[in-house]
Amino acid sequence: MSAHMLPAMRIFHREKAGRPIRALWTLEEAGVDYELVVMTAEEAAGDEHRARHPRGKVPVLETGGETVFESTALCLHAADLSADARLLGEPGSTERALVYQWLFFAMTEIEPPLIEAARTRESHPELAAKAVKKAQGNIDAVAANLGDRDFLVGDSFTVADIVMSEVLGIVPRFELGELTGALPAYVERMGQRPARVRAEARIG
Ligand SMILES: N[C@@H](CCC(=O)N[C@@H](CS)C(=O)NCC(=O)O)C(=O)O
């Protein structure tokens, strides 16, 4: 679909929320225009937003008369809109399978234990330590896969690099575990991509 035929894209973000930037960054990489709506915590908890997301969370994308939630779903959709499939690989390709692999690995094997550790470290330090240990083994697996390459899949940037570098960014932000091997430089490099910088400037 050419850019001028796309339905309007509106992203709902809540002040201080960490995940919406993933969707903005992908839209910026894909060269797709979007409107950004920044809500207060009260607005995000209100009925109007609950009609967009059953748990009142962000990010939410409103497009074509529908609302779509889950940050990685938004990233995948935005990647689909990029003109030449460069953010995702061709449908059915091994490259795309590996992109899916790292997206799911980030979202199911790394992010949940990091969030659990952040939530429990004051009240249940032993639970937090277990969660950090689990996340760390998975982070080390990403470091081993990356080695000294620039990107997670093949030799080009994909949406897997967006989601993985954002999830790994939780480690220094909350001082949980350690980014091993080349991961600190990788996360830093991804954060300096012009599309990421533009997304951050918009989100404030
Ligand atoms: N798995 C969801 C998680 C969404 C999520 O938890 N978002 C946070 C902000 S980063 C939120 O809205 N939290 C509000 C709440 O938990 O009530 C995604 O990746 O989109």
Roughly what percent helix? 55-70%
The secondary-structure element order is EHEHHEEHHHHHHH
Provide the domain count.
Answer: 2
CATH hierarchy class name of the largest domain:
Mainly Alpha
| Cross-sheet strand order for the largest sheet | 2-1-3-4
Shape verdict = globular
What bound compounds does this protein have? glutathione
Report the C-alpha radius of gyration, rounded: 17 Å
Decide which structural class fits the backbone.
Answer: alpha+beta
Low-pLDDT residue intervals, each spanning 5 or more residues: none
Question: Per DSSP, what share of the residues sits in E-state strands of 2 or more residues?
Answer: 5-15%
Mean pLDDT: 96
Specify the CATH architecture of the largest domain.
Up-down Bundle
Number of helices: 10
**Extended strand count:** 4
- Topology-level CATH name of the largest domain: Glutathione S-transferase Yfyf (Class Pi), Chain A, domain 2
N-to-C CA distance? 30 Å
Note the main sheet: 4 strands, mixed
Written description of the protein model:
With 204 residues, this protein is α+β, with helices and mostly antiparallel strands. The chain folds into 2 domains: 3-83, Glutaredoxin (3-Layer(aba) Sandwich), CATH 3.40.30; 94-193, Glutathione S-transferase Yfyf (Class Pi), Chain A, domain 2. Helices cover 55% and strands 9% of the residues. It contains 10 helices and 4 strands. It has a 4-stranded mixed β-sheet. Strand 3 (60-63) and strand 4 (66-69) form a beta hairpin. Helix 5 runs parallel beside helix 7 and helix 7 crosses helix 9 (183-191). The protein is globular. The model has no long low-confidence stretch (mean pLDDT 96).
